[in-house]
Design goal:
Layout lengths: L13 E4 L2 E4 L6 E6 L2 E8 L4 E8 L4 E5 L5 H10 L3 E6 L5 H4 L2 H6 L7 E3 L4 H5 L19 E2 L5 E4 L2 E7 L8 E5 L4 E5 L2 E2 L2 E2 L9 H12 L7 E4 L5 E2 H7 L5
Parallel strand pairs: 6-7, 7-8, 8-9, 13-16
Antiparallel strand pairs: 1-2, 2-3, 3-4, 4-5, 5-6, 10-11, 11-12, 12-13, 14-15, 16-17
Length: 246
């Protein structure tokens, strides 16, 4: 099942499917996927409609923010409304549209949340994620203090989340894979029917295709892919239908 939430969509939707629920009655451009004990709230934010994910172990009330795209205060408001404590910020990569809300998140939290980023993207982070290329300035938030590495395990409550290095869109791009929930947060590596752009500094087409083949398509076909832009998809659907992977 696919649910697309667009700004201005004002009808509530709640469906049950295969043990999870989507709930778009929260806000017009916010949706929530509730797995057993793991909840994922999706925000579509910023000038290029980037997906940000607020993810929580619902039982322990522990949460992380993946790719705070913009409006950091709004992300924190939603966590507080649900009684969740945001413990850290995880970045799939350092492009401006994935980090522009980090400062707003940090401004509302005490102590400051540690930020996780692959070291290969530190230079991009220091350049405000390339915002100047698009005539913008952003606050990238707290300096990253957690060095992400391929194969590293991050912890969210009772859940283990594997870091997979997936360069090609940027040199330090990673995806976050929770095997127990069969869900991967894949940033801008792959989208429904498309792949990440490779024409920006640090991008390389052959490297991106290799990352997708070895780190994404190696996951089970029923793994949900939550991308940086657009609707969710699955590994199996992209293996079969993505024209860039044939």
């Amino acid at each position: 099942m696919e649910v697309i939430n667009k700004p201005g969509f004002d009808s509530a939707l709640e469906e049950t499917h295969a043990g999870w629920r989507t709930d778009s009655s929260i806000l017009p451009d916010v949706s929530c996927i509730i797995y057993p004990m793991l909840e994922i709230v999706t925000f579509t934010l910023g000038p290029v409609l980037t997906n940000c994910y607020l993810v929580a172990d619902a039982q322990r009330k522990e949460a992380v923010v993946i790719d705070p795209a913009d409006e950091g205060g709004r992300i924190v408001d939603e966590a507080q409304r649900r009684g969740w404590r945001i413990g850290s910020i995880w970045l799939t990569h350092a492009h401006f549209d994935h980090i522009a809300g980090a400062g707003g998140v940090a401004d509302r939290l005490n102590p400051l949340p540690p930020v996780a980023l692959h070291p290969e993207d530190y230079s991009l982070w220091r350049m405000q994620g390339g915002a100047a290329y698009f005539g913008m300035r952003i606050d990238p938030g707290p300096e990253p203090t957690i060095d992400l590495k391929h194969g590293m395990l991050l912890h969210l409550g009772e859940y283990d989340v594997e870091v997979r290095h997936t360069p090609g869109h940027t040199r330090g791009h990673v995806i976050f894979f929770c095997a127990g929930q069969k869900v991967a947060f894949c940033g801008d590596v792959i989208f429904q029917g498309s792949i990440g752009r490779t024409d920006l500094p640090g991008g390389d087409y052959d490297t991106l295709i290799s990352s997708i083949n070895t780190q994404v398509l190696s996951l089970p076909d029923d793994t949900r892919l939550l991308s940086g832009h657009g609707p969710e998809t699955t590994v199996g659907d992209e293996r079969r239908w993505n024209p860039f992977l044939r």
